[in-house]
């Protein structure tokens, strides 16, 4: 909280327990015997630390997991467990600057990837590809019009 206060120029305050409790750093672990492959944890992970595919077992890439716990509430079979990896160290004592930087970079990369997925398909296509698509659509419309035109 002190570091946040310094970074934001705000007064130093204790963490409000309503927003969580400071504790040791934990990493997610998926019990592979119980995982049903629903992909909800993959969608919830803000740093893409969980891999797997639909209806297949998932796993956590341990060195990428930030311990944010966002995967916990979405798991319908409660197959995600936590492992303490920092002993009694908490907050910044439980992280290295390199780990924090990597987590921040992975979060930004995921947000950028998701923003591309959410754009309309035409915005993701190079302009040459769009013109080919438009040409194909025009040909298809012309053929459809020919078939519907009265013969004779």
Q: Strand pairing plus helix content: what structural class?
A: mainly alpha
Mean pLDDT: 85
User: Looking at the structure, what is the overall shape?
Assistant: elongated
CATH architecture of the domain at 20-95: 2-Layer Sandwich
CATH class of the domain at 20-95: Alpha Beta
How would you characterize the overall build of this protein?
The strands form 2 sheets. A two-stranded antiparallel sheet has the order 1-4. The protein has a domain of 76 residues: Alpha-Beta Plaits. It is mainly α and 152 residues long.
Features:
single chain; 152 residues; mainly alpha; Alpha-Beta Plaits
Chart the SSEs and their pairings.
Elements: H1 2-8, E1 26-30, H2 40-44, E2 50-51, E3 59-60, E4 80-84, H3 97-118, H4 121-124, H5 127-148
Briefly summarize what is shown.
The protein is mainly alpha-helical and 152 residues long.
């Amino acid at each position: 909280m002190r570091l946040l206060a310094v970074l934001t120029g705000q007064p130093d305050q204790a963490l409000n327990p309503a927003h969580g409790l400071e504790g040791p750093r934990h990493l997610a672990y998926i019990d592979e015997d119980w995982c049903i492959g629903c992909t909800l944890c993959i969608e919830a992970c803000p740093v893409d630390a969980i891999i797997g595919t639909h209806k297949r077992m998932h796993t956590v890439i341990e060195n990428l997991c930030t311990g944010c716990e966002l995967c916990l509430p979405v798991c319908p079979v409660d197959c995600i467990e936590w492992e303490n990896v920092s002993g009694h160290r908490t907050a910044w004592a439980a992280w290295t600057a390199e780990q924090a930087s990597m987590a921040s970079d992975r979060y930004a990369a995921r947000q950028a990837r998701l923003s591309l997925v959410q754009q309309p398909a035409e915005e993701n296509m190079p302009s040459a590809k769009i013109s080919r698509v438009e040409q194909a659509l025009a040909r298809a419309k012309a053929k459809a019009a020919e078939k519907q035109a009265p013969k004779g």
